[in-house]
Amino acid sequence: MNSKVQTAITTIIGKKGINELGITHPHEHLFLKKGVPMQVDPSLVIDDYEKTKNEVILAMAHGVQTIVDAQPIGAGRNAALLKKVSEESGLNIIACTGFHKLVFYKSNHWIHSASSEKLTELYVDELTNHLYQDGEDNWPSTIVDGKAGLIKTAADMQGVAGRYFSLFKAAATASKLTNTAIMSHTELGYHALEQISFYEKHDIAPEKLIICHLDRKTENLEYMLHVAESGVYIELDTIGRFRYHSDEDEIIMILRLLDKGHEDRILLSLDTTNKRMRHYDGGNFGLDYLQTTFLPILKKAGVSDSMIRKMTIDNAARALAK
């Protein structure tokens, strides 16, 4: 397993020390191009530069210093706008290479046919050389001056099977070659242990894994506790997503994780869509919701400032560092 000393984080405009990230949202969507994701869910279009910039400024006004844009190459990520908004606002933005659920790609997209080796080369290229602006239709070719700092992987309800096996293998190899963490989407929290087992067999240490969406369903709490025992980072990103459950239910899950001693592995984020951004269609909800609404409630529930600092600053810095 990789045991290199973790000292820096790759943002889209350069390296940052692990003490420079500050308050971090480890799973948001700042830009999403029109395309297949929009056909799956119209809220998955975030393509107005000024609206996103204003949303970023809103978050920064409440202390947010770093955001991970969780959309990978070829699935609607807009690397050029990510770089621009980072340069103009001063926000640290971490871009993702890797892949998303297959439902977010056209049937003839290269993600369905490219070899694991070719995909590994692409991911390593984005992590070490430059990003690509395109890839939704043809193999990426338009270069953006910047680098990815995280590998995104995802599976649907079938888990790491079929085509996903080759995709996960490519991500694991790229992670080992570059000492980069992997952030992995689970469908409503299911198959997390399967993903962790796969990565363990491919020599990826649990501390290099961030597992997403485990808090989507409150009935998955006991399963989430089993996942936490593996040593991976647990990303809780269903905060303020009332179609799934209330914030009070979210706090119950957090308190259980803390009670079991997992405070060093919890990450908090919002997993934004255009319906949950104030400057798009979000009403009073925005990228500041975590800081202005949820964390005060969490504090009233008895969670200390030191614990909140771990979940919003310290844990993310460790999870994202190389």
Automatic annotation (TrEMBL):
It comes from the Bacteria. InterPro entries: Metal_Hydrolase, Phosphotriesterase. It holds the Pfam family PTE. The keyword Ribosomal protein does not apply. The keyword Hydrolase applies. Keywords: Hydrolase, Metal-binding. Coiled coil: none annotated. PANTHER family: PHOSPHOTRIESTERASE-RELATED (PTHR10819), PHOSPHOTRIESTERASE-RELATED PROTEIN (PTHR10819:SF3). Belongs to the metallo-dependent hydrolases superfamily. Phosphotriesterase family. This is Phosphotriesterase. It comes from Lysinibacillus agricola. The lineage of its organism: Bacteria, Bacillati, Bacillota, Bacilli, Bacillales.
